[in-house]
Amino acid sequence: MRCSYIRLLVNDYEACFHFYADLLKLPVLWGDESSRYAEFDVGSPTRLAISQREVMAEALETDTADPELPHQDRLAVVFEVEDVDATTEQLIATGARQAMEPRDWTAWGVRAAHFRDPDGYLLEINHPLIPAQD
């Protein structure tokens, strides 16, 4: 398992895009000011991503009031794994709390499952649907 992204789930996507792209001058690897999702090169194998909060809330069906989640998620730590389904089974067997079962997120280009840590932070495990071209 390798940490591939730190994903900030933001309220003002356009302002945040300009902050990271224009003020911090991070190279944009994917997305633009209107895409609602972007990835930035931070000089390491782990990338910084920003996403409009509602996009993740809709995907995980957390956009309604949940007594265990008083607010929509603000952060997701994303790990790339070799096999999403096998890793999901292992995590559940060891007591991890699953938030969303494995599924293909074709629009995102990954197979992913979602979990919560003991404090409620969102974790995603994923694997590309199409292997990277070497």
From TrEMBL:
Domain VOC span(s) in chain numbering: 2-128
SUPFAM superfamilies in the cross-refs: Glyoxalase/Bleomycin resistance protein/Dihydroxybiphenyl dioxygenase
PROSITE patterns assigned to the protein according to its UniProt record, in alphabetical order: VOC
Domain of life: Bacteria
Official protein name in the record: VOC domain-containing protein
Source species taxonomy: Bacteria, Bacillati, Actinomycetota, Actinomycetes, Streptosporangiales
